[in-house]
Design goal:
The chain starts with a helix and ends with a helix. Helix 3 packs parallel to helix 10. The strands form two sheets. Strands 3, 4, 5, 6, 11, 12, 13, 14 and 15 form a nine-stranded mixed beta sheet that branches. Strands 1, 2, 7, 8, 9, 10, 16 and 17 form an eight-stranded mixed beta sheet that branches. The protein has helices at about 5, 15-20, 45-55, 90-125, 140-155, 165-175, 195-205, 250-255, 320-330, 375-390, 395-400, 410-430, and strands at about 35-40, 60-65, 80, 130-135, 160-165, 180-190, 210, 215-220, 225-230, 230-240, 260-265, 285, 295, 300-305, 340-350, 355-360, 365. The longest helix has about 35 residues, at about 90-125. The protein is built from twelve helices and 17 strands. The radius of gyration is 21 Å and the shape is globular. The chain has about 425 residues and is an alpha/beta fold.
């Protein structure tokens, strides 16, 4: 199954609240004919757009091809949370790679957030960036771990932008009965992800990148080159930034990066009722294996992500899938009208660390952000661009932490994922 076609209309953004409130860019024409460039980027999400933008700033001739529309994939339909650090926390990184390498990974995470802020400011991107992301604990033990981790960041990295809230204080901010306290990272933030992606695409085009939409890469050829349905791009470098939509384009990243689906819904504008849910306009994610995550929109909706579905087809009723965890989290919103509901395909790795690799001379790949991609996917794209330009220090750091391959090859990895997700979602329900 090709996930580019499995759940979405060709050439159309999904029916998200973001697509409703974000003006589309005029379509870029499909590729028709054979062309040459210094670099061909495959994929018009955060990774590909930041790669193209950085390389154009350095004066290289860049072609970017996108099978659907720029920002079509996870970059344009995610939960919009701009988190700190890596997907794995610093204690995990320290235990596996040592304190020096873990410190460099922390610095990369800070650079990723800074890249989001500076890109928005430099290119005038109107995407409703707002501060604050909370991590909600579902048990006393996990609250203690969050509090200890916040203190560790302050002591080890001088990161003092996290507030620790005991159960009573946290319930005053996030008004759900299911939490046992939490932390609020004031140095993190949230935004309209599609508006951010389209702003990057506009900036890349203005910088001179040649962007072709509705242009699917069908094969990597020698040279290197990229074959599409109606033309070929020959380049000195090819960058695969396809994330969950890689398909069969390259076998090596497909061994390490697995696509999964997630689902999001938006309520009607809640007006004063929003204060019954969030007393502070922050984003929130809980500590369940099947994570619930949510944020207020600029027009007063609650944009809520959650629910699981095994297999690559979206459920027939996405709103019903999301409503269950939404109403479990906020019983006071029982029966609330959901005006939008949509699914998306992201990509995970076994270690939850991104997979950045040089697959062959001139062929690069970056993907697998495991739900932490709003900031990190852009940083990964910039990191690949730096490596192409001759500075591979950050690229080598990511490569040193490359996630292992999924067991069983392509034939078994999806069934194994279903078994694992079923087990862990059962643990969530039973309260383990």
């Amino acid at each position: 199954m090709n996930l580019l076609d499995a759940n979405d209309r060709f050439g159309h953004y999904p029916p998200s609240v973001y697509a409703d409130v974000t003006p589309e860019l005029p379509p870029f024409a499909p590729l028709d004919g054979d062309i040459r460039a210094d670099v061909c980027v495959i994929g018009g999400g955060y990774t590909g757009l930041h790669t193209a933008l950085r390389l154009r700033e350095a004066g290289l001739d860049v072609v970017l091809i996108e099978a659907q529309r720029v920002g079509f994939g996870a970059s344009g339909r995610n939960g919009g949370q701009v988190g700190s650090g890596q997907r794995q926390n610093q204690l995990w990184l320290e235990a596996r790679f040592g304190k020096d390498a873990a410190g460099r990974f922390w610095d990369l995470g800070e650079a990723a957030k800074a890249l989001v802020r500076t890109s928005i400011a430099t290119h005038g991107i109107d995407c409703d960036l707002a501060p604050g992301v909370a991590q909600a604990a579902t048990g006393a033990g996990s609250f203690r771990e969050l509090a200890e981790y916040a203190r560790h960041l302050a002591e080890t990295h001088d990161y003092t932008q996290i507030d620790i809230l005991d159960p009573a204080a946290f319930s005053e901010v996030v008004k759900s009965p299911g939490y046992a306290g939490g932390i609020i990272d004031r140095g993190a933030g949230h935004l309209n992800p599609l508006a951010y992606a389209l702003g990057l695409a506009r900036a890349a085009a203005l910088a001179g990148a040649r962007i072709f939409e509705r242009t699917r890469a069908t094969e990597l050829g020698p040279g290197p080159s990229v074959l599409t349905v109606k033309g070929t791009v020959t380049a000195d470098h090819v960058v695969l930034s396809c994330n969950g939509y890689l398909g069969n384009l390259a076998p090596e990243p497909a061994r390490h990066v697995m696509p999964i689906n997630n689902f999001v819904a938006a309520t009607e504008p809640l007006g004063d009722r929003l204060n019954e849910v969030l007393a502070d306009p922050i984003a929130v994610a809980d500590d369940r294996f099947v994570v619930n995550y949510y944020r207020p929109s600029k027009d007063g909706r609650l944009v809520f992500g959650g629910g699981e579905s095994y297999g690559y087809k979206f459920p027939a009723d996405i709103a019903a899938t999301v409503r269950k965890p939404l109403e479990r989290t906020f019983p006071q919103l029982a029966g609330v009208r959901l005006t939008h509901a949509w699914g998306g395909t992201l990509a995970i790795t076994l270690s939850r660390m991104p997979f950045l690799a040089r697959l062959s001379p001139g062929v690069w790949s970056a993907s697998g952000y495991s739900g932490h991609g709003v900031a990190m996917a852009g940083q990964a794209g910039r990191t690949v661009a730096e490596a192409i330009l001759g500075d591979a220090e950050r690229f080598d750091l990511f490569s040193s932490a490359a996630p292992p391959a999924f067991p069983g090859g392509r034939a078994l990895r999806a069934p194994l994922l279903v078994l694992a997700m079923t087990w862990y979602s059962l643990r969530d329900r039973l309260g383990f």
